Amino acid sequence: MTAGLTVVRPGALTTVQDAGRPGHAHLGVPRSGALDAPAMTLANRLLGNAPDAAVLETTLTGCALRPDHTVTVVVGGAPCPVAVDGRPAPWGLPVRVPAGAVLDVGAVTAGVRSYVAVAGGIAVEPVLGSRSADLLSGLGPAPLRAGDVLPFGTTAPRTAPADLAPWPAPPAELTLPLRLGPRADWFTPEALRTLTSATYRVSQHSNRIGLRTEGPPLERASPGELPSEGMVLGAVQVPPDGRPVVFLHDHPTTGGYPVIGVVTEPALAAAAQAAAGTPVRFTLG
């Protein structure tokens, strides 16, 4: 019989994520995958899973799950309270959850996204080689709903013993290294100076598609229209309101607003954990 996790409380937004499905942009399919990939990898490592085994990515309010088989889990990423049948359990370390008990992953105390890794991995059916939910295209499993049952692997790997793990803290200030282009020449010299000298803040309207910012608008040098062109992960697009948007893993593969620069991929994990109101600075490099 397949082991399963019943969703008791889905939280604000909880999705299945793994390393994503790169290589399909020509089909209009973005990469998707865990926004904080290092957190996913570390949680899986602590369980002895493959680094890219599918996990649950929660948003702000956590989730609650009931396994029908005893299982070991790790809750990491954004710090949050963890409980098993109402009893406090460690965050960031392996926790044994008996069959029928409720694992409660609470609201974050900092950051945005927590990760729930399960020994054996979440075993939903892959689509185009990935188990990730893609909120833009609708590929992969839908966001969790109460009553859903998620299969998980029954071949339990060996848990790596650990007394602590090096979980990074969510950023108090987000610094995003930027490479200018391909459409930096569509903006005035003053706009380029503003981009790399002003302090922006993370907008509450950010999501898995993009990190939206609030701050001084960037003035266009060219008022014309731009034909739709390919977009990459980390692209900083500037819509008509002039506030930069950093594309994250569920971003569209094409777009018609100019891209002033691209944020290097290693910096995007911190962007995944930057809560609304977090100061944002763009730096050249």
Any overview of this molecule?
This protein is mainly beta and 285 residues long. 9% of the residues lie in helices and 29% in strands. The protein has three helices and 20 strands. The strands form four sheets. Strands 12-19-16-17-14-13-20 form a seven-stranded mixed β-barrel. A hairpin with a 2-residue loop joins strand 6 and strand 7 (87-89). The protein is elongated. The termini are far apart. The mean pLDDT is 95.
Strand order of the largest sheet: 12-19-16-17-14-13-20
Largest sheet: 7 strands, mixed, barrel
Number of helices: 3
Q: How many E strands?
A: 20
Instruction: Note the overall shape.
Output: elongated
- Secondary-structure element series: EEHEEEEEEEEEEHEEEEEEEHE
Average pLDDT across residues? Answer: 95
Task: Report helical residue fraction.
Answer: under 10%
Radius of gyration: 20 Å
Please mark out the parts with pLDDT under 50 across 5 or more consecutive residues, or reply none.
none
